Amino acid sequence: MSKTIDDVVIAGIDANFEGWVDHEGRRVLAPGVVPGDRVDLEVVASSQHHPRDFARVARVHARGEGFEQPVCAHAGPVRGRCGGCPGMHVRAPLRAQILQDRVTELLGERRLRWSWHEAPQQLGYRNRSNFVVTRRAGRLLLGSYAPRSQDVAAMSGCQVVRPMLSRVQAELEVRLGALNVPVGDEEQGLRWISVRAAGLPGAGESVVVELVVREPQAAWLGAATEAIMAIEGVQGVALTVNDRDTNAIRVDASGTLAGECQLIERYGEVELAIDPGAFAQLNVEVASAMYRQAARWVEGAQVIWDLYCGIGGLGLNAAVGRTNVHLFGAESVASAIESARQNAARAGVTARYRVVDLGSANWRAACPDEGVLARPEAILINPPRKGLSRPMREVLSKPASLGAKMLVYMSCDVASFVRDADALEQGGWHLVELQAHDMLPQTTHVELLGRFERA
User: Fold this and answer.
1) Which of 37, 58, 185, 412 is the most exposed place for a label (fewest CB within 10 A)?
2) 69 is in an annotated binding site
């Protein structure tokens, strides 16, 4: 049975943008509130391991000065049920302060001056959306899972994506609905749709639509592909097969159904070709600023290693336009390495790329061990959210054996960055400069760019 807590004042707000109040020896957390809000709460769940309860707002008596009405009609839980922007109800200065406090807390006792960088745009920045496909009241709906639920929340008119994506989403709902395309677990059902945009908004912007299905020979695919290609701005339709019972959207490579499925986007000083399933930063402007900064930091290095290089953006920005620069890139995904080679050729950069399992114990042996590339002067790393693998930390923590004098670490998770920084500093590196970027405004995400020098 649920429990109600009447007429309480929210005392604080945490790094997940959830407000809290201490009540009867337990901390009660609730989304959609800010310090100073006077509300009635309904406890909906309790932790069995900590004195902590989770609640929803049953009634609002008054709002604190840090609250603002979300501009998006779907922002949960204040106006809707979408959980994609948990900080949209928090005024911008408070939201920025919460994110900065999280960085400060995790950095701990380090005496390090670091800088905070706001995103140029708080809305309309995101270049990709993934949609769950379902049906509601007989109509096809592209939405997202509501927080802690398998219920699908509407996303039409999403405020953080590029306007082009919202327009394409609306047309997809109408056109695929008119074809009565099966969805979800229905026979031959369409499970997810991913839509990515590239190019200058409003000036030659292009879109690729990726369909994720259980059955690659679904009878409706031909008509659906034709209908999607008729949408203005769509340059290609891709297909991904996923017949597994998993929350992962992609478990295999994508294929082309129609048109051209490789988009070209300019990140920093380099144009990158992006395949449907490839990773590319969702906020082009912020990523470009970070790539340019990393390039400035390593501009004196002649031999550069780009580890976890992906499709090449970070390393190519450091090498483009420079003479006598030797660039080596390593990545575990073969398709990303092939894209990196294409992108290097497009940028006029001579680079050597290799598929390397960067989580394996002998990853270093797969990298150059003779010739000019054998001893890098600077190393660029941009690992996934979990951070560096243990073998990677062990090798990088011996900078003298590598020859490197500088290391630049781009991170999408503050906690894993701090863990890795501890290991690197114990091994002989010194973190001398750090930038924190608001990569995905309205969310809890902070992107870090750190410069390490050999101690």
Assistant:
1) 185
2) no
The answer to whether 308 is a known ligand-binding residue is yes
CB contact at 8 A, 450 and 421: yes
Write out the two tokens for 309: 């290089």
Alpha carbons 287 and 266: distance in angstroms, whole number: 10
pTM of the model: 0.95
331 is in an annotated binding site: yes
- What domains, with CATH codes, occur in the chain? 3-85 (2.40.50.140), 128-264 (2.40.50.1070), 283-454 (3.40.50.150)
Query: In the predicted model, what is the mean pLDDT of residues 191-200?
Result: 95
Residue 412 falls in the annotated catalytic set: yes
The residue from 158, 309, 367, 412 that is catalytic is: 412
Task: Give per-residue pLDDT as tens, 5-58.
Answer: 999 999 999 999 999 999 999 999 999 999 999 999 999 999 989 999 999 999
Give the model's pLDDT for residue 250: 85
